[in-house]
Structure formats: C-alpha cells, structure tokens
C-alpha cells in the first residue's frame, strides 16, 4: 500500500501566504479598462474618424466615446480578432450607448449613417450638443428623426440623455458612470470632456479643445482641478486628449485645437496640481491628429522631444485594443 505524503503544517501555511500574495497581482494584471479604437484621426480619412469603445476589463458592455467612424472601425476590429462576431452584431449588441463630445461631423457621422441598422440605445451629451443633433441631423430632412423628440415622425431609435455639467450619471446597459465637463472649442462653441467611472477606477476622454490661454477660458483649469484628486489617489487610469496640429500651426489658426506644445503646457498644469511622478503613471492617449501630409510624424516627434515631464504617450491604431493598467 502506497503511503500518502503529508505536507507539514508550516509548509501549508507558507503556501497559503504565497497564494494570497499572488491574488492582488493577478487582479492588477487583468487591467481596469479595455479601449477599442474605431477611428483615431482628426479629418480627411472618413473611414477613420474619432470613435473609441470603452468597457471595464473582462466585460463586453461598451460605450462609444464619439462616433465619427463606426462600422468600418468595427470591421477592422473583427479582422484583427478583437471581436469575434460580425460588425453589425457588435454594433447592435455590444455598443450600449454613445457619449458625443460635440456635434461636428467628424465626431458623429458614423452614428448618424448607421442609425437605420442600430439597436435602441441612448445618446449622452451636453444639452447644446443634443440640440444640434436633434435640430440639424435627426430632423427628418438631413436624415430621418431617429431621436425621441423633435420634428415628426419621431422614430425613437435613440434616447437623448442630457448631461448636467459635473454631475455623475449611470450609463444604461453598462456598469459605468459618466460625468461631463464643458470645454471650449473655438469662439463660442462648446465641446465636452467625459470622466467615466467603473467602481473606483476612472478614464478621462476630452473632445476637441483649445488651450485656455488661446481660448481665453478657464475650462481646462477647472477640469484639471476636478481631476487632480483622482491622480493623487491613483484612480485615474488614462487620459484621451487631442493633438490636432504640429507646433508650426499659428495660435490664430488653431480653431479650438491643441498642438504638442500646448498639450504639454496643459499637462504641466495638471502635474502642478499633483506631481510629475504621479502623472507619469497615467497613460496619455493621443487623439485627433490631422493626417495632412507629414503632420502625424511631426506631432509624434515633437511630443517625444518636448516631453520633459516624462509622460507615457500612446498612439492608438484602428481596431487594435488598448488595455489600461
């Protein structure tokens, strides 16, 4: 008869401690959010305009941060193996709602053109943005009225949800919550930043914005003040922010956008409220680069050369997922 080897109690105790030590590491290794870029550029290429899916790690209930390109981006994601289902199925079943930063076409054309084949869901935005969508796009003339108010016939495919500035609201069909902050995108035009929360983790997505100094505004300063406690607590897991033009673009021709120099100026303002060391732990995802010949290469190089804060910049590719730590 074969005797069983009995593990000494001390060894069992040490093994348990080792396993308990590994559990938090394993949970951290799973990440906090998954990002699927459906469109990354700030113009010209209508098949690759601003749109980013976001979901908590391990979940398939995505919200869509802007929606310049949808179907083509989903096809690219399926081709790359990011999603298993056909693009139309992912659109209908896994995209649970839209957060639209402002009503320029490069940020919502995909949602508008795909509305006939989409499922019922909500559009979240500041009231000024929803009014433009209702009155100028889903108005029965530019396009059928797929909203839930406005010019009849009202098809009620989408439900308009107005976000009050700085007030958190649940995103229907997901485990996420959103808080909107107004931004300045050129003289008299309002854009928005969205602070998305899942449990105690956050991601910040900025729509188009100019720097405070050029816009004669304090909206970015107010945003950084709201964000600073999350950076200090280690709860902010990523910042999406635009860099539309290289530094050669004159301030008078920024049209409510950022250059690498202005982006780094704004990040320095946030670092001043926290510390550079803490901000280095937050990936900075660069969006909305305008693909005029040579622009993207210059923007990347200028960010690299002038990055005295030592920040981590990520440059998203259409259909390639990003797992935030």
UniProtKB/TrEMBL annotation:
Its EC number is 3.1.4.17. Pfam families: PDEase_II (PF02112). GO terms for molecular function: 3',5'-cyclic-AMP phosphodiesterase activity; 3',5'-cyclic-GMP phosphodiesterase activity. Keywords: cAMP, Hydrolase. The keyword Hydrolase applies. The keyword Lyase does not apply. GO terms for biological process: cAMP catabolic process; negative regulation of glucose mediated signaling pathway. It is an enzyme of class 3 (hydrolase). Belongs to the cyclic nucleotide phosphodiesterase class-II family. This is 3',5'-cyclic-nucleotide phosphodiesterase.
């Amino acid at each position: 008869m074969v005797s069983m080897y009995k593990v000494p109690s001390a060894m069992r105790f040490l093994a348990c401690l080792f396993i308990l030590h590994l559990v938090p590491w394993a949970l951290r290794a799973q990440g906090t959010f998954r990002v699927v870029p459906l469109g990354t550029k700030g113009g010209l290429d209508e098949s690759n305009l601003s749109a980013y899916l976001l979901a908590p790690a391990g979940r398939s209930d995505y919200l869509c941060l802007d929606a310049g390109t949808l179907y083509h981006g989903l096809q690219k994601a399926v081709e790359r193996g990011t999603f298993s289902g056909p693009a139309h199925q992912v659109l209908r079943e896994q995209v649970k709602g839209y957060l639209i930063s402002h009503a320029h076409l490069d940020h919502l054309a995909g949602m508008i053109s795909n509305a006939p084949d989409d499922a019922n869901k909500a559009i979240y935005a500041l009231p000024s943005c929803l009014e433009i969508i209702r009155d100028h796009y889903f108005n029965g003339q530019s396009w059928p009225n797929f909203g839930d108010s406005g010019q009849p016939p009202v098809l009620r495919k989408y439900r308009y949800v107005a976000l009050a500035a700085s007030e958190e609201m649940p995103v229907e069909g997901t485990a996420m919550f959103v808080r909107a902050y107004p931004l300045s995108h050129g003289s008299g035009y309002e854009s928005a930043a969205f602070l998305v929360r899942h449990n105690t983790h956050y991601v910040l997505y900025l729509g188009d914005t100019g720097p405070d100094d050029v816009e004669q505004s304090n909206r970015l300063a107010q945003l950084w003040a709201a964000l600073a406690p999350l950076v200090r607590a280690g709860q902010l897991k990523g910042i999406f922010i635009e860099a539309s033009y290289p530094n050669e673009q004159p301030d008078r021709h920024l049209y409510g956008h950022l250059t690498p120099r202005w982006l780094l100026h704004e990040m320095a303002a946030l670092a001043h409220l926290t510390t550079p060391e803490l901000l280095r732990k937050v990936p900075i995802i660069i969006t909305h680069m305008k693909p005029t010949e040579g622009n993207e290469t210059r923007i990347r190089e200028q960010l690299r050369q002038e990055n005295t804060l030592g920040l981590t910049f990520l440059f998203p590719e259409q259909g390639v997922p990003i797992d935030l730590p």
